[in-house]
Amino acid sequence: MMNSNLGGKALEFLGRSFIAGTRISRGDAVFFGTSASTGERLEPAFTGASMQDVHDAASAASAAFPVFSKTSARVRARFLKAIASRLEKLGPELVSRAMAETALPQARLEGELARTCGQLRLFATMVEDGSWQHARIDRALPERKPLPRPDLRSVLSPLGPVAVFGASNFPLAFSVAGGDTASALAAGNPVVVKAHPAHPGTSELAAFAITHAVAECELPPGVFSMLFDDGIAAAQQLVQHPAIEAVAFTGSHRAGRALMDLCAARPRPIPCFTEMSSLNPVFILPGALAGDPRGGARGLHGSFTLGAGQFCTKPGLVFLPETDGVDAFREELRTLSSANAPFTMLTPGIANAYHRGLEDRRKLDLDTVAASVSASPQSHAVLHEASLETFQKQSALHEELFGPTTLLISWRNRERMLQAAEALEGHLTATLLGDEADLAVYADLIAILERKVGRLLVNGFPTGVEVSHAMVHGGPYPATSDSRFTSVGSQAIYRFVRPVCYQNFPQAALPEALRDENALNIMRLVDGVLTREPL
Amino acid sequence: MMNSNLGGKALEFLGRSFIAGTRISRGDAVFFGTSASTGERLEPAFTGASMQDVHDAASAASAAFPVFSKTSARVRARFLKAIASRLEKLGPELVSRAMAETALPQARLEGELARTCGQLRLFATMVEDGSWQHARIDRALPERKPLPRPDLRSVLSPLGPVAVFGASNFPLAFSVAGGDTASALAAGNPVVVKAHPAHPGTSELAAFAITHAVAECELPPGVFSMLFDDGIAAAQQLVQHPAIEAVAFTGSHRAGRALMDLCAARPRPIPCFTEMSSLNPVFILPGALAGDPRGGARGLHGSFTLGAGQFCTKPGLVFLPETDGVDAFREELRTLSSANAPFTMLTPGIANAYHRGLEDRRKLDLDTVAASVSASPQSHAVLHEASLETFQKQSALHEELFGPTTLLISWRNRERMLQAAEALEGHLTATLLGDEADLAVYADLIAILERKVGRLLVNGFPTGVEVSHAMVHGGPYPATSDSRFTSVGSQAIYRFVRPVCYQNFPQAALPEALRDENALNIMRLVDGVLTREPL
């Protein structure tokens, strides 16, 4: 069952987990990838990880940590870039297999691959720059009265092995070699990925790239492992394993909360970042309707149907004032939504959940504009409309519904609309469409939304999450488990580090970032002042 | 039962909670402060908070948040400094009442008051400086292919109302106006304190100072409330209240874990930082024993008996090699420990727990050097010694024992000592005593300890926690609930903030820290480069 030869051709799928550089899966369960378009089984068979496999992967990660956590910025940056290069080399195979497993179009997957590689290189650049570590130095004050101050220096250090969960809706950028893995590795943490069973072949190819990069950079093989399982046993065991120090997940509220609860209930609780559920409310303001109502409708339609509405940031809720232009907006949106060709969903499970969710909404007697719903895995765009009062009464309308649908909430009373905004749960994003006058008149709405979301947009749409330094892909629960962090952008690294302080340490025993000479030329907080000067 | 007149003399204790500027306690339970030295009841009676009081305090905090979170840095800095000034004005009364309630000596409490005020002013300075907010700007790239980049800007924003728990062992610096309150307020979060019942009078005076500072700065009264309760009902209700967004606690492992579990089990879980339990291991290295063994013993003795051993950072575990000088070290430590006058503990509860813990250790048949243990609240210094093997077998020896005692673990086999270090749980600190040669020879020990603690010290002692920028008073569980944060020093603010991103916002609608002109002159990350330049 073991094959430690990783030199074979990329396309020779082995269907086995990657345990610290070896290919092994000793579980009983076997599963297959399926074509998202046809439902056909795709070769090969994937064997699930056994309990021993999970233990071996976590233990190998723990064993690799002392070495990997001490690697230089140069080595870690080279490693991240090597992963990106190897993913690019596998590009055609990766895209082709991902197309088969997800039915996402080629251009989207090519873009996602570019984004994934760009993300790895962004972290490489940040690691090379070094200032992300927040080095702080408070120099000794031996003459201070009544007590002298010792020399104190702190720097961010990696937490330890991180368990990463692949997401179904981004088979590259939020999966095996995605942002969670990139940010955890950048900080110096080994990673154990639980591959998403909706795209096992894509996962195998990405793991292949990372495993080769580990070998190329002569890192301990335990720096990366990946486990296959189409059930929940491996996941449960992994997040409870004593060697795992943090968890990162993108997916449903139910699964994310289950992981949070498992992490919190451990004898030794660990940080668990889950990105889960978001309606991404959009507030159309009067100026937008007075200006270009049909343009706004086209933008919104493009956003809520993008990727068949299977984005974490899909706008699922649209607040619409009954002011001039609203009829044109509504008409354009209805026309576009009715004219959509059917969408192929990522998995039959997602398609079924979408159809069930629509059925539930239908029972609420909402105003519906919809093409007929076909059999799984095909789905149609559906547009619902409800009054503010119905929205506030029906808790089901406050839950995320993955798929190409959105809900219009029309309002006439400004105070009631503000009350509804105040009653919103946490979301990843909130969007305002309007002119400058609107933003002044609705400053109170903006102030409410700032407390509800991780990202606020003006005159744009929330789908399309830029990977950059200022991006926040986070927000209050249930958008994520912990609003203090983001899973996209360079700030994602802060999920996986902790400050360590060195008191009265001689120079030679200090981490390089904290030594007097500042050979890394990083920005440091010295006696409360940010500077790159050596001491 | 209500008295909204806060203008009376400081010494007129009312014994009622502070609910958003009013003095009210509608609970059934009444309790008294007690003299820690004599056990005598101290006037007045304190009435516990009712469920309605808890709800009112949390709701008022929530109502104050929109205004307080938007106050300028100047206003918040003035507020923090006003609290410090008012505490200083109450100095003699505060110290005198705290002496009665805790039996801590006057000089210690005067020092603690100075530390508490210095802490408030440190946060004021940081808030005025502004760079702590980590403003980030990624400018729009409208010509980028294949897709343009929008303008993205992020900044740290306050979480919302924070529940703070006063600690028994630092009636000023870790209580009502202590580091948790200072850092939460500095970030713009209202605070609801649950006063520790071991020093209710001290708490009332500190709350009096804060409430007056709120009024002086014309802030919404809900910015600060304080609840009395000598049971656990108010605490439980407070951390589960929907308006509370974060919790900060310093105390026992049992109570801290209970709060963590309550926060994690909420319908909407919230961040909970608890600082709980630490043995603060000290590793005496051969060079220290060869150099000045008696000096090392004196320093250690001073540290583990400081404040009757009731410090979070008390060294409770001392690894001792059987090398030259060890006999002198041991003899000096035994002599000093045997000669200690009895200590008065903070509370009868702490004294009883200490005596029970010593009793448990006695059953383990350790080598004991101890004066006889007197009746509560008086306690004697006790020194135990155990072999490495006994220490590794007995899990009870891995638990914190508050009080003037420590445990020597002698070792001869370097590998076994390293294994014992590797098996340690998380602690706040680890200390090495040795010369430069030791630090090179024991680099592997340092590498192990870096993964176990928040602060590493060389040739010092862990008691005495500097309040500065580089301090880390944190560490892996069970030292704290989340090793990514600290409760002491300016980094403590990061427990209570989250990043918020603004996409494509017009200048006028942006927070001041993110506007092009950088009127605040703060350090910002602009397109990945740290700069104070305007855009």
Itemize the secondary structure elements and their pairings.
2 copies of one chain form a homodimer.
Chain A: E1 18-19, E2 22-23, E3 30-34, E4 41-47, H1 51-68, H2 73-89, H3 91-102, H4 106-129, E5 135-138, E6 152-158, E7 162-165, H5 179-187, E8 191-194, H6 200-216, E9 224-227, H7 233-240, E10 246-250, H8 253-265, E11 272-275, E12 282-284, H9 286-291, H10 293-305, E13 317-321, H11 326-338, E14 343-344, H12 348-363, E15 367-370, E16 378-379, E17 382-387, H13 388-393, E18 405-411, H14 414-422, E19 429-433, H15 436-441, H16 443-450, E20 455-458, E21 497-503, E22 524-526, E23 529-531
Parallel strand pairs in A: 5-22, 7-8, 7-10, 8-9, 10-11, 12-13, 12-19, 13-18, 17-18, 19-20
Antiparallel strand pairs in A: 1-2, 3-4, 5-6, 6-21, 14-16, 15-17, 22-23
Commentary on this structure:
Two copies of one chain form a homodimer. By secondary structure, chain A is an alpha/beta fold. Helix content of chain A is 36%, strand content 19%. Chain A contains 16 helices and 23 strands. The first copy, chain A, has a seven-stranded mixed sheet, sandwiched between helices. In chain A, strands 21-6-5-22-23 form a five-stranded mixed sheet, with no helix packed on it. A five-stranded parallel sheet of chain A has the order 9-8-7-10-11, sandwiched between helices. In chain A, helix 6 links the parallel strand 8 and strand 9. The longest helix of chain A has 24 residues. At the A-B interface, helix 4, strand 5, strand 6, helix 8 and helix 15 of A face helix 4, strand 5, strand 6, helix 8 and helix 15 of B. Strand 20 of chain A pairs parallel with strand 21 of chain B, so a sheet runs across the interface.
